[in-house]
Amino acid sequence: MKIAVIGSGSWGMTLAIHLLGNGHDVDVWFYLEKDYQQALDQKELPDFLPGITLPDGLNFTMDLEACVQDKDIVLIAIPSHTVGGTLSKLRALISPKTIIVNVAKGIENDTLRTMSQVIAHALPDHPVGNIATLYGPTHAEEVVNKLPSTIVSACPDEASAKFVQKAFMADTFRVYTNTDILGVEFGGSLKNVIAIAAGILSGMGYGDNTLAALLTRGLFEMTRLGVFLGAKEQTFAGLSGMGDLIVTCLSTHSRNRHVGFELGKGRKLNEVLAEMKMIAEGINTARSVHQLIEKTGVEMPISEQIFQVLFEEKDPVIALEELMGRAPVPERHSLS
After folding, report:
1. Which of these, 91, 77, 95, 207, lies nearest to 143 by C-alpha position?
2. How far apart are CA 52 and CA 45, in angstroms?
3. Which residues touch 288 (CB under 8 Å, ≥6 apart)?
4. Least enclosed by CB within 10 Å: which of 99, 128, 270, 294?
5. 3-state SS, residue 141
């Protein structure tokens, strides 16, 4: 297959390497010239994949328009807040037959669209059945080193989901399919907010009981919102829900957990972000979740407290006290 990878960060480049290893013809688009030149001249990207030599056979470009033309798959691996603007420039260039595969995780601020909805809005003539999302518990640092990993290809058109599955499947990279793209996208996006909370708890010195409570109740409120908005409950027990939540909340590779950990130690958000080279998607998603809470009235107490810690400088100690002091309710409270 001919595949374009839009985005040369850690995940985009990891998937480009993976797809090349699967025998595909892969073009990678770079946004920054310094990264492009480094990849060409030194065959490495130390800011994103330290210690990894980029293999011969990958085609690097800064020509976005040329990159996406005449491709079987266009893989979107750029920050979620840039997806809509980037794809709107390509409206006349991507064939309707091309399968667009999104790996950016997030919910767009204000519009409250998931990434597949953002793509469909930016490319109104592109068949919705040819827009897929690939989410799961897959840190780039492990996938690039061929550690066994699993992921889910989600698309309302089962044939397209299977097409993506076939393109990405490998001995150390097992791909499942799911037609509930809404549930997969909410799971893979909302968990980043809970991961910030997990980092905060770890930074504050709390233990396993507290973290287990967070993951369990965090998964529940992710499910509650997703089901309210039309997703299937069982999707959140899968790879993009529980699986992605576990890896993002527990792993030191997690950028969202790192942000929370530093906040839990008492640092300010702007200080933490100033030191980071990559984006923690959970920060923007926390704002979108707050907007969804206001719009829908769905109870998401953990996510709301994280919004207040991030954007209203609420003391995490007070946030935890308020969560623990809420009125007693049944375990499956308000999940229809």
Report:
1. 77
2. 8
3. 106, 107, 108, 109, 112
4. 270
5. helix
Report the CATH fold assignment for 2-179.
Answer: Rossmann fold (3.40.50)
What is the token pair recorded at 123? 């490319």
Model pTM?
A: 0.95
* pLDDT per residue as tens digits for the range 112-137: 999 999 999 999 999 999 999 999 99
Residue 336 clears pLDDT 90, i.e. is over it? no
**Cβ neighbour number for residue 332 with a 10 Å cutoff:** 10
Label residue 70 exposed, middle or buried (CB < 10 Å: 0-12, 13-18, 19+). Answer: exposed
Q: Is the pLDDT of residue 277 over 80?
A: no
Please report, for the chain, the start and end positions of each structural domain, with discontinuous segments joined by +.
Answer: 2-179, 182-324
Q: Is the dihedral of CA 41, 102, 154, 105 positive or negative?
A: positive
For the domain made up of 182-324, give the CATH fold: N-(1-d-carboxylethyl)-l-norvaline Dehydrogenase; domain 2 (1.10.1040)
User: What residues act catalytically?
Assistant: 191
Do strands 73-76 and 59-61 pair parallel, antiparallel, or not at all (unpaired)? unpaired
